[in-house]
Write a structure and sequence with these properties.
Shape: elongated
Number of domains: 2
Radius of gyration: 18 Å
CATH class of the largest domain: Alpha Beta
Helix content: 25-40%
Order of helices and strands: HEHEHEEHEHEEHH
CATH architecture of the largest domain: 3-Layer(aba) Sandwich
Bound molecules: S-adenosylmethionine
Number of helices: 7
Number of strands: 7
Length: about 210
């Protein structure tokens, strides 16, 4: 198996469970690595796309783990009937993750622990989770991008209004500060010769405020 990048390594490090559901598994690196390293004893690898799931089937077979994985074509938790204590939902947009969690709630299939890594619209996902305690929410830099990792396990504090945009930085990391500086530079460049719309100005001030607290 190829070496995991920082994003996948961070997600893997959050897994420590009996039964893991890797929702939207695609290539399968997360679930198969969890099984291989013993971080998960059992794995349900699922994807809405049969074609994507077949990549995971190939990876598990190449690692000699094919017999130990249950592969399920499923939209979110729809066809996942096994009891799992942890689920990873990574690489999907925030709105898609919200849809999956809402449906899981109505099916009574939300596991005790969720490891979420939205690729877009993370702030909308945080807003959706606003009534829920959050164990960890931090940023991980992988290649040239920054990804949020959100861990929900029944422990921790709820989001503050000021944390929806960029998260809790919990545990604190230099990746978080770097992400804020980058975003500030992007906005500086973009609005060098024109006035910032009110919404952008609010974001700009918010970032500055966060950086001042460092
Ligand atoms: C970009 S890949 C992410 C792969 C891996 N989880 C990761 O983080 O590297 C997104 C995968 O999610 C799957 N997907 C999208 N919507 C889904 C849904 N509602 N339920 C299950 N899988 C979904 C897609 O088919 C695709 O294989």
């Amino acid at each position: 198996m190829k070496e995991l990048d920082n994003r996948l390594k961070a997600i893997l490090a959050e897994i420590d469970c009996e039964a893991l559901a890797d929702i939207g598994c695609d290539h399968g690196y997360i679930g198969v690595s969890a099984l291989k390293s013993g971080r998960a004893k059992r794995l349900i690898a699922s994807d809405i796309s049969e074609k994507s799931l077949s990549k995971c089937i190939r990876l598990a077979a190449s690692e000699g783990l094919g017999e130990k994985v249950k592969f399920v074509v499923s939209d979110g938790f729809e066809n996942i009937r096994d009891k799992v204590d942890t689920a990873v939902i990574a690489g999907l947009g925030g709105y898609e993750i919200i849809k999956i969690l809402e449906r899981a709630k109505s099916l009574n299939r939300v596991p005790e622990k969720l490891i979420l890594c939205p690729h877009q619209n993370a702030s909308e996902l945080r807003r959706y989770l606003s009534g829920t305690p959050v164990e960890r929410d931090y940023v991980v830099r992988s290649d040239l991008k920054f990804y949020p990792v959100i861990v929900i396990s029944g422990k921790g504090e709820r989001y503050l209004e000021t944390e929806f945009g960029y998260g809790k930085n919990l545990p604190p990391s230099t990746d978080f500060t770097e992400m804020l500086f980058r975003r500030l530079n992007v906005l500086d460049e973009r609005f060098r010769e024109r006035t910032m719309p009110e919404k952008v100005k609010t974001e700009y001030d918010e970032i500055k405020e966060l950086l001042c607290r460092k």
